[in-house]
Amino acid sequence: MELGQYFLDGNPDAVEFCPHDGFLNILAVSTYTLQEGDQPSRLGSISLFDVNGSSCSLDRIGSVETAGIFDIKWNPVGGGASPLLAQADADGCLRIHGLECSSNGTSLTGLIISSTSEGALLKESCGIHISSSMCLCLDWNPSAMSLAVGLSDGSVSVASLTESELIEDQQWKDHDFEVWAASFDTHQQSILYTGSDDCKFLGWDLRDGSPMPAFKNSKSHKMGICCIVKNPNDPYSLLTGSYDEHLRVWDVRSISKPVNETSIGLGGGVWRIKYHPVISGLVLAACMHNGFAIVKTTGEIPEVIETYDKHGSLAYGADWRRHSSDEEGKREGNVVATCSFYDRLVRAWIPESDIHA
Questions:
Q1: What is the overall mean pLDDT for the chain?
Q2: Pairwise CA distance, residues 305 & 321, whole Å
Q3: In angstroms, rounded to a whole number, what is the distance separating the alpha carbons of residues 355 and 201?
Q4: Of 59, 174, 305, 311, which sits 20 to 30 A from 345 (CA to CA)?
Q5: CB atoms < 10 A from the CB of 132, how many?
Q6: 344: phi > 0 → left, psi -120 to 50 → alpha, else beta; which?
């Protein structure tokens, strides 16, 4: 079921639903737009949307202009933390935005807010220049106290977040090309996984202040690695996506080869993978040239249970909205947001399949 669509001024490449109670309806969408010419520039933006499955609506409520963005992520829920949105951008910066409420709908610096919104506002709280190279991807550690960033020169950076600033703790280089995937282990927050255009899938132990290789696999992926996602419900299961069109399922106790792998669509590199917020083993995948797919990964062989082809260009961003208590078990709770790059399109929809825990 279609909830709505919106055409942006820039090229959208990431969509992220806020996981924090009270803001579950808020969707952040980032853009990256290359302006060619004598002095090329990389411009970007973050737009906020209100997405409602019950009323079938997708409403833009605000936007802020930035450098060109490659990745955004909300901070994990826990410990009474307020919503924070991190961005990795083409200027080599890692920036943190706070999500705030304004009862009268007034605007904060840099944000345009509509009079019909409930007053959700983004405000940059801190940032740090990581590198002269571009920041391509990011991830929060489970405690939300530090972030990892993958860089276009093959380096990886880890920075700590205090109340008022970001501080880079370490930076190292062990990849030969762009690092498109950097992901913390949700069950062991000292472990970081990285993947790159060099086809290397690496694990790092960040204890003792210097990264130590936990493992290295450079044979399984036939093309560059686009994303790495740990199963939040299984301490040993992990997924990788690659330009080679395969979704691979791994057991982190035996990383020499994947447990299994499947092609989730001819002609579609697996750019983004998102686990369903409630249903174990169900994932949403952005497949670049072949739209989006919902995949069940719990069986002996991963199974595609639904595809979505309403976008007309590169499928990059995808996410599930988290459930509120009154949506548990209801079809309206399975809200999905997706975006495609060149046609500048954001869509919100509910899968046709019977998806329930």
A1: 90
A2: 19
A3: 32
A4: 305
A5: 10
A6: left
